[in-house]
């Protein structure tokens, strides 16, 4: 990963195809991920997203934002939040891992019959500046019909501890409905939901955000598929009084439990599980590589055309 970053990510170079973009999961997520096509174009490529606190404006809210001096040159990898979302497509160790017999056998053992891979990510969780990942369900972003089939495979590349931002999960939430869906905004793209120089619908309003969250709670309440619905006051945030560590009183009160693990451990969980991670308060990064798989067309499952992640026409998700 270090070689990829060093050779490919040159955010201060005006000629670089990689723009300076931050990745956020807080209240400014729509703004951060919807400022340009760089996020959308990452579906089949490796794009790089910085931590907001590694930038000179502390937010990354403008196109002229630069890395702070301490993160330039040889130390630029320490500024990154994540890389994604097509790492499994590019020849090399990430694709080899994705196509390994261990991943194949694990998914079959867990009951996936025709799994495909829409997304992969490398998460850096930097020491001191690695921010929280707020409460969410992966199926919000990886929505399938007529049923949710997302499974996350979370590979720890470093020990994950309470101090460096290990995963927290809410047991039992996997039985709940998906509460919201992250969709392409037809107000921006037009009804085609396409983008690019040849695909943009002239009816779209480019001043509107590219993506929006659709509230599914009413749909959840009307569901008769056996799922339960739950009002979540911390949707897209953290429960009140989640900090400080190690007390984390608000998290325990909301039903969350920490999942510390060792480097090399693999956590597997379905897309409806409510989960989050706290900031990294340690001096060292906590790296993970994450695959997200869903059932494919051969299983009678459809990828939502409204999802933010769409491959170019004629290109299919990797089958496992």
Describe the structure.
- With 320 residues, the protein is an alpha+beta fold.
- The chain has seven helices and 15 strands.
- The chain has helices at residues 2-8, 29-33, 93-98, 101-109, 186-189, 217-221, 249-253; strands at 46-50, 80-85, 115-123, 133-136, 144-145, 151-156, 167-169, 180-184, 211-215, 257-259, 266-270, 275-277, 288-295, 302-303, 318-319.
- Strands 1, 2, 3, 6, 11, 13 and 15 form a seven-stranded antiparallel β-sheet that branches. It has a four-stranded antiparallel β-sheet with strand order 4-12-7-10, with no helix packed on it.
- The longest helix is centred in the N-terminal third of the chain and has 9 residues, at 101-109.
- It starts with a helix and ends with a strand.
